[in-house]
Design brief:
Blueprint: H1 3-13, E1 19-22, H2 29-33, E2 42-50, E3 57-63, H3 70-77, E4 83-84, H4 87-94, E5 114-119, E6 128-130, E7 137-141, H5 143-153, E8 157-160
Parallel strand pairs: 2-6, 3-5, 5-8
Antiparallel strand pairs: 1-7, 2-3, 2-4, 6-7
Length: about 160
Amino acid sequence: MSPREKVYELLDLLNIDYRVTQHPAVFTIEDIDKLSLLRYGHVCKNLFLRDAKGRRHFLVVLCKDKIADLKSIQEQLGCSRLSFASEERLKQCLGLHKGEVSPMGIINDEGNAVEVVLDKNLAQIRTLGFHPNANTATVWISYDALIKIIENHGNMTHYVTI
């Protein structure tokens, strides 16, 4: 089963309404912007971070137009200095490659070690867009559906102001 099919299977299992948009491979928010996907909802920016000692890993989900202040996020989480995790750590922890970072990646996190960090403002957005663990599509779900996926999997969740 492909990574994408695994996501769709989970969405179906959890009875989550979703829509999928197929598109060429994208690696950045700028690439997404060129596709004019905003008519479907709000595409999110997803960052995979680690603490200074590499003991804690965080998947930060925020509005695509926001800039993540890592120091502020660090303070709100009460952890040591944050930095971007390597592509090797991304593959090891979430089974994803660069350009595929998505909260859907937690389904590959068998030990629930990755902590999900959500921008509080996401709750106000009706439809959110994420890669279904492949950067050639965007899956559109509600904020409540995102929370349901995270809670179902059991990863720790933090809510921060970005």
